[in-house]
Design goal:
Pfam families: DotZ. InterPro entries: DotZ-like. The structure is a single chain. The chain has ten helices and no strands. The chain is mainly alpha-helical and 295 residues long. The chain has one domain. The N terminus is likely disordered.
């Protein structure tokens, strides 16, 4: 996936809702980062953590768009409910406003069909969340397990380099390197050695080539998880982006339906929207409808 493209598309939403959402997502996978690490990890397209939150972040964003689309849908339905309860729709065909009433009935039928399609997409969205969550939990459990094994294995070569810090310091060094080193799709030996150098920004010890090679060997399973990760989530990311497009489309369609229906109601000489009731109906519509917009 294109990290820059993803970053740009989510940047407005992420800046609005902050790092707390990403922190909660990572927390579900038992991944804990310090706040400074978290911000850098999520904003660095080459970090494993950035890739780990992409599908869940997209799902959260899609949920917000879906909720907004649903609020528009409900408001449009209320416009029709008030109209139908007024008795205006039951007037004789010869009564003034017949053409407008016919147009309103067409809009009502279209809204019913649109609502049915929307609920199908909402179901797909819910299924995608469950399916992708299951895969990400399995991957993160494997990652966390291999992380602990690597930490224990690294104690021996690090002791040779006169490092006597706690396991938490080794864990921090691995996190640091995972954030700043690109091993997602470029795992040359040189890059792996750079990973060790990045870890050493935390250790601050003297490492010869032999020690670096031993440390690389201890980290190979983590490197493998990194290299395989995108392939495992690619399908879910594509589906999530498709749902973003569809959710935006439904939000726009429900909104445009509201505009058309209000315009049509204005043409009925004997019907007026109740301002007090309309104010109540509109309470759920005060949101930023540009969130997640794809165009």
């Amino acid at each position: 996936m294109n990290g820059d493209e993803v970053n740009n598309e989510l940047s407005h939403w992420f800046s609005t809702y902050g790092a707390i959402t990403a922190e909660r997502i990572l927390g579900k996978y038992q991944v804990k980062l310090e706040y400074a690490e978290l911000v850098e990890a999520v904003k660095t397209p080459t970090s494993l953590y950035h890739h780990l939150v992409q599908v869940p972040l997209r799902n959260v964003l899609n949920g917000i768009i879906m909720d907004q689309a649903n609020d528009y849908h409900v408001y449009a339905q209320k416009l029709f409910i008030d109209y139908l309860l007024s008795g205006e729709s039951a007037k004789d065909e010869e009564a003034q406003g017949a053409v407008t009433r016919e147009a309103l009935e067409r809009e009502r039928q279209q809204l019913i069909s649109l609502g049915d399609e929307f609920h199908k997409i909402h179901g797909q969205h819910d299924y995608l969340i469950a399916e992708s969550q299951s895969v990400l939990i399995k991957v993160s459990q494997m990652f966390n397990s291999e992380m602990e094994k690597a930490i224990n294995a690294l104690k021996s070569p690090l002791k040779t380099a006169n490092f006597s810090g706690p396991k938490s310091e080794i864990r921090k060094a691995i996190r640091h390197a995972l954030i700043y080193c690109n091993l997602m799709n470029n795992q040359t030996q040189e890059n792996k050695f750079q990973f060790i150098e990045k870890m050493n920004e935390i250790f601050k010890v003297s490492l010869n080539q032999d020690l670096k090679a031993r440390m690389v060997l201890n980290l190979e399973k983590i490197f493998k998880i990194e290299s395989d990760f995108d392939e495992q989530i690619k399908e879910y990311f594509v589906k999530a982006k498709e749902i973003t497009e569809l959710a935006n489309s439904f939000r726009d369609q429900f909104y445009n339906t509201i505009l058309r229906v209000i315009d049509l109601l204005k043409f009925l000489p004997d019907y007026k929207i109740d301002p007090a009731q309309d104010a109540i109906n509109r309470e759920a519509l005060y949101f930023d409808k540009t969130i997640g917009a794809t165009r």
